[in-house]
TrEMBL record:
Descriptive protein name: WD-like domain-containing protein
Top-level division of the source organism's lineage: Eukaryota
Organism: Saccharomycodes ludwigii
InterPro entries in the record: WD-like_fungi (IPR046925)
Domain called WD-like: residue spans: 32-115
Pfam families, per database record: WD-like_fungi (PF20493)
Length: 137
């Protein structure tokens, strides 16, 4: 997946394959080719593993998404796609938001996870959610 602010990259390219199973939606299963940010993403997988080893699931989830977005430098707390990703991962289990918040080492990210549980997207998987469950566009 190559998305993001292409001006923020380290110019390196390469293949990244990584798999670690983790609880609370923090599993990382990736096989990608980064054309512009390989070294940053590779370093992020190490930070992800440190977070998993220390059971910092909120941090691991952040690094998981950072890696999925090719290590691009966003303010993820202002990034609507990150909210949608969390919503999909939680899949209705609002307890996960508290777990992520309580296991994040960054206070801003911890607060973001608590606020994120109130997010209800209008579009999920390119389908409009209609209040009448018998119809969807």
């Amino acid at each position: 997946m190559l998305v993001g602010n292409i001006t923020v990259n380290d110019g390196s390219s390469g293949n990244i394959e990584y798999y670690t199973e983790a609880p609370y939606g923090a599993t990382l299963n990736i096989s990608m080719l980064s054309l512009d940010n390989h070294d940053v993403v590779e370093d992020a997988t190490k930070l992800y593993q440190y977070a998993v080893d220390d059971e910092k699931w909120g941090d691991a989830l952040f690094f998981q998404n950072f890696i999925y977005y090719n290590g691009q430098n966003y303010n993820y707390t202002d990034f609507p796609d990150f909210l949608l990703d969390l919503y999909k991962i939680a899949n209705g289990n609002f307890t996960l938001y508290s777990i992520w918040s309580n296991t994040s080492t960054d206070p801003t990210l911890a607060e973001f996870y608590l606020r994120a549980k109130d997010f209800v997207p209008n579009i999920v998987y390119n389908t409009f959610i209609i209040s009448d469950s018998s119809s969807a566009i």
